[in-house]
Each structure stands twice: as C-alpha cells, then as structure tokens.
Amino acid sequence: MKKLIFRKISKDTSFLFISLCLVLGAIVWTLQAVNYLDYITQDGYDFKTYLLYSLYNFPKIVHRLIPFVFFISIYYILTNYEKHNELIIYWTNGISKVNFANKILFLSIILFILQIIIGSYISPYFQFKSRMILKNSDANYFSSLIKEGKFIDAMSGLTIFIENKDGNGSYKNIFIDDSTKNNTKITYADTGKIVDLNNQKIFKLYNGSIINKSENKINKFEFDQIDINLSEYSSNTILVPKVQETSTLKLLKCSIFKNYFKYESILRNCNQSINKEVNQEVFKRLYKPIYIPIIAIVCCFLIILPKNNIRYNFQSRLTFLFGFLILLLSETTLRYSSTSFNSTIIYLITPWLLFLTIYLVFLIKSRNV
C-alpha cells in the first residue's frame, strides 16, 4: 500500500514537472528564436541553418529551467494534496512526515543526477553542434540582404553600398570597402550582379575602379569587369565555440591542467583571462544542481501543518518565499564562486550548511506538531 501511494505522488510530480518543462521551455525557446532571426536578416544564413541552430539550444533552456520548474511542481503538488485532503492518506497508513520528506528527497536526487547529465554533456554537446552549424554554413541568402541605399556589413571586414537594384537582380552604383587585409581597398562600379559559380557566391562588377591604400601608398586602376569571391569572406557571427559550448572534460582539463581547447583547426588558449569563466561553468554544470535537494526539503515544510491550522497560510507563503530565495541564492553565489579562493570555499560549503540546517529544523518541527 505504501509503495502504491508513493508511486502516485511520484507520477503526479513527474507529469507536472515534464509538462511545465515543455511548456515553459517552448515559450522561452520561441522568445529566444525571435532574437536569432538576426542570423537571417543581418548575417545571411538560410532558414534551415537558423532552425537547426535554434533547436539545438533547447536543451540549454531546459537545463536552466529545471530547478525553478521542480520547485513549482513540488509546491503545487503538496498544496493541492493538502487542499483535497490527500495527505491524510499517508498519515493514516502509518507514514511519518520524515519518511514522506525522505521520499521527496529521493526524487530530488534523481533530478539532481539528471540535471548534471544534461548540464555536463547534453546541453554543451548540442550548443557546440549549433556553433559548428554556423561555422560550416555559408551566408546563402547574402543577396537578399542587399537593399537600396543601405550599408551592408554582414561579412567581416567588408562593407557594401548599393544605390539601386532593378527587377533582374542587377545593381547600379556600387561601393565596396574591403579592409580584411593589411591594406584598404575601395571599389566603385557602375553595375554588378551576384551569381552562383561552383557553389560559390561571385559578385561580378562592371565598369569601375579600385583604389588600394597601403601605408602611405595609394594606387588606382580602372576595370571593365572584375569578380569578387564573396565566399572568401567570413560572417560577422561568432564562430569559435564559447566556454558554455565546450565539453565538460575540456573545461576540467583547462581548470586543472591549463590545457588548450581544440576544435579541429581552431585552437583556443586556456589562460588566466578565462580561468574565472571556466571555473564558473564547471560549478554550474557539476555543483549547482546540489540546490535541488535543498529546494525539495524546503517544500516539505508544507506538510508540517494541516490546512485547518491558523498558521498554515502564513507557512505556505513563507515556504514559497524561502524557496524562491534559495533559487536566487544559487544564481547569485555562482557569479562570485571563482573570484577568489575564499569565495570558492564559501560557495562549496554554503549549500551543505543550508541543507543540514533546513533538514534539522524540519525534523524538529515535524516532531513537535
């Protein structure tokens, strides 16, 4: 009988938790996906690249939502059980409040392990894949970015200005400022057109001139036709994976052994300048989930008093407020976890002291009621 009733609360909590994760995750993902539209409207990536990049960031959203959603789920389930007198079933079957709280803690430990898995492997893996999608994709819709009377700088070091564009896709009065190399090259052309040639974007320019400025020398020559390979220019989008997109193993090697990050041909130096950021990311993935059991035991204060007790409403509000403060504490302390050796020690000790204190208070209150 005890297994059946504990199975019910586990099922109810899991269902609500998964539902909230999906709903809230979808809302946050939609809002975030709107911000990623710049990759199409400004950087020239196609819709497929944009969609995959957005979808691969969904595990990151879920990972950030897990503690909050778990808190809301446990709080709602316990208050709803008390409201419908379902908690009485547990007490009449000889289940103590301490035993009940331990079962809730067991659920939180499972979620604690799940969040570590998502944060240390699944989320960075898909974030890394999303960055590689941008790196390996061309700005396929570059021609659609060019608008009359506007300066376009979607390509790094390349600025293009078009005065007119006709219905055939030809451009008139073209200005191009190329500062990708050590010198500055300014190109003028009467007309031009972007064509696809051997899977490359070629900007064909007609009747113009080029001014090269290198140190104190200025050279100018005119041309009847010249081709500019737009595929040689990189996008303004950041293509090197960020620390958040790096595997946990690489971060640990960087934090402990000061090794380099290696991404195929990309070599990122692991030095003192990013040491704080790396350590914070490691703590966020492997240590911050420890606050989930603390949230669980805080919510268990809802079962101490019955709903007909005059202090029940006050205690339920206080529990919600304290749980919210715990979530806030887990976020704010992470920012200072790597500022110094002392701050790191405090960050590591704080959740254990919190848990032991809160659990001890729960034991005392549950036996005195």
Task: Quickly list its features.
about 375 residues; 6-stranded antiparallel sheet; two-stranded antiparallel sheet
Any overview of this molecule?
It is a single chain. This protein has 369 residues and is an alpha+beta fold. It folds into two domains: 2-136 and 240-368, no CATH class; 142-232, no CATH class. Helix content is 56%, strand content 19%. The protein has twelve helices and eight strands. The chain has helices spanning 2-35, 38-41, 47-55, 58-83, 87-92, 97-135, 142-145, 248-257, 275-286, 291-299, 312-335, 341-368; strands spanning 151-155, 158-165, 170-178, 184-197, 200-214, 217-229, 261-263, 266-268. The strands form two sheets. The chain has a six-stranded antiparallel sheet with strand order 1-2-3-4-5-6. The protein has a two-stranded antiparallel ribbon with strand order 7-8. A hairpin with a 2-residue loop joins strand 4 (184-197) and strand 5 (200-214). Helix 10 runs antiparallel to helix 11 (312-335). The two termini are 25 Å apart. Mean pLDDT is 81; it is low at 263-267.
